[in-house]
Amino acid sequence: MAFQVSPGVNISEIDLTTVVPAVTTTQGAIAGVFRWGPVDERILVTSENELANRFGKPASYYTEAGNTSSAIWNNYETFFSAANFLAYSDALYVVRVAENANTAGGSVFDAKYQGVLGDSLQVAYCDSSSFAATTVSDSISIVAFSNQAEIGSNTVNYGVGDYIVVDNQNLKVTAIAVDGANTTVTFENKYIAASNLSAASYAYQWGYNTLFDSAPESGKVHVVVIDEDGAISGVAGTILEKFTNVSKTISARNEDGSTNYLFDVLDQNSSFIAITEANVSSVTGMDTIHFLAD
């Protein structure tokens, strides 16, 4: 750099093309039909990925299954208009208008938001008394290399997705049909044995216990959220969420001081399901709940 020996005017040329000016991000807003998410609420979205995760990817819905010529609606225009704006900005307020006013639900839990996407949800839970295999004194008969069992009772305490345990085989239940005083249970795989089975008792086990390291503590439950039909993830049976050792006591806290109360945990952390405080006490034993539209 040159220095002037005597007073004078020094002219310097500086390249500023590498400097990024501080420009305020332009905010925008859009209202339209989305597959999932809060209804009639302004939600700030900062990227296309967040848009897809919060409100679902673009899709079409039809008047009947398999009929691709009569769409009820599609939201491609709305979604890609929002995505295009987010390519240039990181602040878009999105307001979802529900395509369906119904909220899917089961006997205890409900879908968190309105819309037909909730019909694909399934919730399975178990408490400390139902995590390990439970033996029942009902007769069971299975023909070798078949995938069905005859149970000598018209009442069973397990559901589709759980396991019947016989001869060290875990047979996943896919269907249950009551026929008079008996129950026919269908399995995903065949019972492999050298001879037919006829026993006075058998065991059953919660179908999702392998997702957890141990049983929940007393007064607590494990909860699993499943995409039963594949409408959310694209693959039927995908595990969407799981909640470990969640308490049914309103004052329950984790070690870091955060709430561990089932109602609050789902309200704050689940993207798919909710429960009313009145229903928290009903989460006992084990069950698998299939959601249906109201």
Describe this protein's structure.
The protein is mainly beta. It folds into three domains: 28-97, no CATH class; 109-128 and 210-290, no CATH class; 134-205, Beta Barrel (Elongation Factor Tu (Ef-tu), domain 3). It has helices at 48-55, 76-86, 262-269; strands at 28-33, 43-45, 60-62, 71-74, 92-97, 109-111, 121-127, 134-136, 140-142, 148-151, 163-166, 169-179, 182-187, 197-199, 202-205, 220-227, 238-247, 273-275, 286-290. The protein has an eight-stranded antiparallel β-sheet, with no helix packed on it. Strand 12 (169-179) and strand 13 (182-187) form a beta hairpin. The longest helix has 11 residues, at 76-86.
Number of domains: 3
**Count of helix runs:** 3
Number of strands: 19
Mean model confidence by pLDDT: 88
Key traits:
single chain, 294 residues, mainly beta, 3 domains, 4-stranded antiparallel beta sheet, 3 helices, 19 strands, elongated
Q: What can be said about this structure in brief?
A:
This protein has 294 residues and is mostly beta strands. The protein is built from three helices and 19 strands.
